[in-house]
Write a structure and sequence with these properties.
The structure is a single chain. The protein is built from three helices and five strands. The chain is of the alpha+beta class. The protein has a single domain, classed as 6-pyruvoyl tetrahydropterin synthase/QueD (Tetrahydropterin Synthase, Chain A), CATH 3.30.479.10. Strands 1-4-5 form a three-stranded antiparallel beta sheet, with helices on one face. A two-stranded parallel ribbon has the order 2-3. The radius of gyration is 16 Å and the shape is elongated.
Length: about 120
């Protein structure tokens, strides 16, 4: 909403995520954690919250039309940028008990956004 470039038009993205988890000590199997645990947690969140969903700012004027037409959407307090989506995934992992260091979302082979705290 209110973006000056071509991204002002309705569009979608397919992204790849890079997630870094850190621990001071390895577990009894010599790992920080099993990759499948991270994958399962993130995939469940993406499937439930983000995938095949229309993400938009909570003040977007199109929301009443979406409600009227019973369209699926997620109204966010912030604009749905790669940076914000990285933060959402990061915070979900944190709330799920992972000691996440950062989440990077790649929109293309050369364009990415990273979120980390501290």
């Amino acid at each position: 909403m209110n973006h000056p470039g071509k991204c002002r038009n309705l569009h979608g993205h397919s992204v790849k995520a890079s997630i870094s988890i850190e621990q001071e000590h390895l577990n009894e199997q010599g790992m920080v954690c099993d990759f499948s645990e991270i994958r399962d947690c993130v995939e469940a969140y993406i499937d439930l919250t983000l995938d095949h969903n229309f993400l938009l700012h909570k003040d977007d004027p199109i929301i009443p039309m979406l409600i009227e037409n019973k369209e699926r959407f997620l109204a966010l307090d912030e604009h749905p940028t790669a940076e914000v989506l990285s933060k959402m995934i990061y915070r979900h992992l944190k709330q799920s008990g992972f000691n996440v260091a950062q989440v990077v979302l790649w929109e293309t082979a050369s364009a990415h956004a990273c979120y980390r705290e501290n």
